[in-house]
Amino acid sequence: MDWDDPKAVDVFFEVHAMFSREGPGNQPSTARALALAGALPAGPRVLDIACGPGQQTLDLAVLQPDATITAVDLHPPFVAQARRRVAAAGLHDRVNVIEGDMTALPFAPGSFDLLWCEGAAYIMGVEAALLAWKPLLAPGGRLAFTEAVWLRDDAPAPVRACWEEYPAMTDIAGNRVLARCCGYTLLGDFVLPEAAWIDDYYGPMAERIEVVAARHEGDPVAGAVLDEAREEIAVYREFADCYGYLFIVLGL
Q1: In terms of Cα–Cα distance, which of 180, 191, 186 is closest to 250?
Q2: Which CATH number fits the domain that encloses residue 115?
Q3: What is the pLDDT of residues 40-73, one digit of tens each?
Q4: Counted domains in the chain
């Protein structure tokens, strides 16, 4: 997609405007990763980085009922949507959603016991993210994030083309090594199940694409954006064994 074309960007966000998640994930996977993090201090302080519309934020709040959670995202409509959902769930007393840049988080060192980032560390680059966020953790803190990984080294051309905008993508072993090199201890990891892609992300996206397509019939820019989104879904459905998202949980 041409991110320099304002119309293309508008159509992209029109597609993504109503999702509960902005990437693969589901509540059971969030719960599994939280279990890998192990025991947290009483009243843990949690930071959800690039929270999007906030589904995993809500899941964390339910799974950690004594936690105070700060959720941050740079896209104002996502911040507004997350705030509405937090209010509707009656969680505004311990979940605060703010607008902010994940590359320049405005928090003091040692402010959090748990950092969480589902599907967004790649924006900074995983190494840069791990190093930049590390000072925010209190002693013994935890960091959990998801990252796209190759599951096979012989992915066919359509798959490689789908991921050509992310040349830094590596495999499971590569992420484990990188985490250790950044000074973390690996507490555990697992590949997200296909349901985390289809049920909560690509399924709603496929329906939304056709709604947006009806609004922009005959528009070549919109058509190109929507065709790319359709292709993304089709490639995953055919080649899910070639790539996935790794949920990786780290400690200091």
Answers
A1: 186
A2: 3.40.50.150
A3: 999 999 999 999 999 999 999 999 999 999 999 9
A4: 1
